[in-house]
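Q: Predict the bound structure with fe (ii) ion.
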Amino acid sequence: MAAALIHDIGDALAPWSHGEMVGAVLRPFVSERVCWIIQKHALFQAYYYAHLMGEDRNARDKYRDHPFYEDCVEFCEQFDQNCFDPDYDSLPLEFFRPIVEEVFSRPRSPLVAAEELC
Ligand SMILES: [Fe+2]
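A: Predicted complex:
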């Protein structure tokens, strides 16, 4: 849930690579699976709009055989695509505070960020 909440924080600084940027922020604190989903979500999210811009909406399919492919499809469906609805019934930020504090208070390993790629 914490990853879903912050997955677009890099959009203003890195609009063309914000998934990779946020993946780097999350890498020490989340599983390899969650990190991969966040890193790739922009490409997977393009499924919903790329064809409207003359681009390939199925570009995500280059990862079809990846073990986290379906998880990323599901993430975009449930935690990204539906969040562009201004009438969506969102929870207040205070609801997420303890979740974010818990996740970011316990890195998996101090060496993860320097050594692992998702
Ligand atoms: Fe995004």
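A: The mean pLDDT is 89.
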